[in-house]
Specification:
Blueprint (H helix, E strand, L loop, with lengths): L3 H26 L7 E2 L1 H8 L3 H13 L3 E4 L3 E4 L4 H22 L5 H20 L2 H16 L5 H24 L3 H16 L3 H29 L1
Antiparallel strand pairs: 1-3, 2-3
Helix pairs in contact: 1-3, 2-3, 4-7, 4-9, 5-6, 5-8, 6-7, 7-9, 8-9
């Protein structure tokens, strides 16, 4: 049996992943605004690829909640309503403390070294206002905390929720004055876990997620009033 079809399939997936990564970056950075139509032929021409990997990339972004594919309109950049934002953060509040409780006792010295490095870079990037790295470091920080939970389905769901929340996390940090609070609470989460105070860490994590969601909803409410 020829291996060519498998090779071509792998090549398409690799190209699709690269296209998805670049489109994801543009959406999260705000270069591609909510409601913007993403035309497959235009994107294929821009990236110098066929429409097949572009279509696969858009389907991946739809699964992440960044794009909606609508009948007769094709793909558009999605816009989360306040209700959707509330649902995202409520799901995080339910799942993440559970994962932390299961994982915290198994965190190693190497894990804590990695968490400390993330926190150091996080603080530097916040002060330098390098917005693009905020969400990436936030996602990495939370994933390291939960990595030993032994609950792959819940971990996969949370990883997707963190991805969907990425641009909103950046918005919350940059526009609602949440930078200093986030930095303090992340450091306290690590300290509590390191000292074996897992229940207190889980309680703080729930408060932390709730606070981010609440400040985002307040921002949306004030923004909608001003429009």
């Amino acid at each position: 049996m020829s291996s060519r079809p498998a090779h071509k399939s792998l090549q398409h997936r690799t190209i699709a992943s690269a296209v998805a990564e670049e489109l994801r970056r543009r959406i999260v950075d705000g270069d591609l605004k909510s409601g913007l139509q993403l035309r497959q032929d235009a994107l294929a021409a821009e990236f110098g690829v066929s429409r097949i990997p572009v279509r696969e990339a858009l389907m991946q972004l739809e699964a992440e909640g960044l794009v909606k594919i609508l009948p007769h309109r094709g793909a558009i950049v999605s816009e989360l309503s306040m209700e959707e934002v509330q649902e995202l953060f409520e799901l995080r509040m339910l799942l993440e403390p559970r994962l932390l409780k299961a994982s915290a006792r198994y965190l190693t010295e190497m894990d804590y070294d990695r968490l400390d490095r993330i926190l150091q870079e996080y603080g530097s990037e916040l002060r330098a206002k390098h917005v693009r790295r905020w969400g990436e470091l936030n996602t990495e920080f939370h994933n390291v905390l939960y990595q030993h939970a032994g609950q792959p389905r819940a971990q996969a769901i949370v990883a997707n929720l963190l991805q969907e929340c990425d641009r909103h996390t950046r918005l919350q940090l940059s526009l609602t004055g949440g930078m200093e609070r986030a930095e303090i609470e992340h450091a306290e989460l690590v300290r509590l876990c390191k000292n074996g105070k897992i229940s207190a860490a889980c309680a703080l994590l729930k408060t932390h997620i709730e606070g981010v969601g609440k400040s985002l909803r307040q921002y949306f409410e004030e923004h909608n009033k001003a429009v």
